[in-house]
Design a protein that fits this description.
- There is one protein chain.
- The protein has about 375 residues and is mainly alpha-helical.
- It is built from 13 helices and 3 strands.
- It folds into 2 domains: about 200 residues, no CATH class; about 100 residues.
- The protein has a 3-stranded antiparallel sheet.
- Strand 2 and strand 3 form a beta hairpin.
- The longest helix has about 35 residues.
């Protein structure tokens, strides 16, 4: 083999982020252990099988890992061809919730029965990341204009609005809009326009909330604003709206530094409703203490750091924006979940990535990880001097 060929192969050596892969598998394994610990009592009581939730989540996790591996070894540029399909498919799946294919769980109609259970909001998160990464690249410098910015934000507002109105899933609507807003923010140098936009939106939202809260627009207060009242004064609503939040705070407070021990939670014994979903972080704090909570948050911080590294070294803007979109998704969801559990913000249903129970969520999160690692594989390492 000639020296020129050897040099070419050395120059084309690809990168793979094993640190990110380790964090993903750590969170998955930790999540399965905690899921069994948190859900075994409820599963045995309601289904006669303490491993009911664990087995279902394990099946989704294995399928998600297979999908992640497949996506890793597909060049991420391939998905750019399906960008507009991703937008249309996301909208279509959300609309299908209104058909007989949609079904209700715990009072919320957010799922589809397509032979397997599917939550369209999770599909939309991945779809919006691919679509807007492609759209921003296509628009080029036009994205810097007011019309360009309004077009992008307006088009994502349609999907977010559909998620909010059709599935009544406020948290997913916020996440989808936040993902695209973050992708727009990092792709344009005109930060001032976005800061002004955030200020205006916050002001309008505040006025709207005040009007609806006081019944000016609707004539009555909605259940969402009952949650705000419960957040401001949880003890006054301890028997209903703030019951779950207060039990979560009791769990966190009783965990101390190192917790009561794995499997020793008392709050999971019927006190925290659906503890394996939104409130699993509170049981982590109770059983593993602040130390366990710190380890979980540290893993997510390391994950965000690896996203920064991959995005900064991505081969092109499309790849960088995919990573930024995934980073925004994980960051927003983790922050909102922990904020809800600690009563920092009003209660809204939002899961902790990789750890909370949810088949659709874990599958599509792993697909997103596959996209990020596919971008990482296309990073070319410089030859050693």
């Amino acid at each position: 083999m000639s020296q020129a060929i050897r040099d070419k192969k050395t120059k084309e050596k690809s990168y793979f982020d094993f640190t990110l892969l380790f964090v993903v598998f750590f969170l998955l394994c930790f999540g399965l252990v905690m899921l069994y610990s948190v859900s075994s009592y409820d599963a045995n009581l309601n289904y006669g099988d303490s491993a009911f939730f664990l087995r279902r989540q394990l099946g989704s996790t294995v399928f998600g890992i297979i999908m992640m591996v497949i996506v890793i070894f597909i060049d991420y540029h391939f998905w750019e061809k399906f960008a507009f399909v991703a937008y249309g498919a996301s909208a279509a799946l959300i609309l299908l919730v209104l058909t007989p294919l949609g079904y209700e769980v715990n009072g919320a109609r957010r799922w589809l029965n397509l032979g397997v259970s599917l939550q369209p909001a999770e599909v939309a998160k991945v779809g919006m990341i691919i679509f807007y990464a492609s759209l921003v690249c296509r628009l080029g410098k036009n994205i810097y204009t007011k019309m360009g910015m309004l077009f992008v934000l307006g088009s994502v507002a349609i999907i977010s609005g559909m998620v909010l109105k059709i599935t009544e899933n406020l948290s997913s609507a916020i996440i989808i809009f936040g993902i695209v807003f973050m992708m727009m923010f990092v792709s344009t140098p005109n930060y001032r326009a976005y800061i002004v936009a955030v200020g205006v939106l916050a002001g309008v939202a505040g006025i709207f909330v005040a009007l609806v809260y006081n019944g000016v627009l609707t004539g009555e207060k909605s259940y969402r604003f009952a949650r705000i009242e419960a957040w401001l004064n949880p003890e006054a609503y301890s028997s209903k709206e703030s019951f779950q939040t207060l039990q979560s705070l009791y769990a966190i407070g009783s965990g101390d530094i190192f917790g009561k021990g794995l499997g020793q939670s008392l709050q999971k014994l019927g006190y925290i409703p659906e503890a394996q979903n939104d409130m699993i972080f509170s049981v982590i704090c109770e059983e593993l203490g602040l130390f366990g909570a710190f380890v979980v948050m540290l893993m997510f911080i390391i994950m965000i750091w690896r996203f920064f590294i991959i995005a900064n070294n991505a081969e092109d803007e499309f790849g960088a924006l995919i990573v930024v979109g995934v980073m925004a998704h994980i960051a927003i969801q983790v922050i909102l979940n922990i904020a809800v559990v600690t009563n920092t913000i009003p209660n809204t249903g939002i899961t902790l990535p990789f750890i909370s129970y949810g088949g659709s969520a874990v599958v599509f999160l792993l697909i997103e990880m596959g996209l990020v690692l596919s971008v990482a594989r296309n990073i070319k390492l410089k030859p050693a001097q």
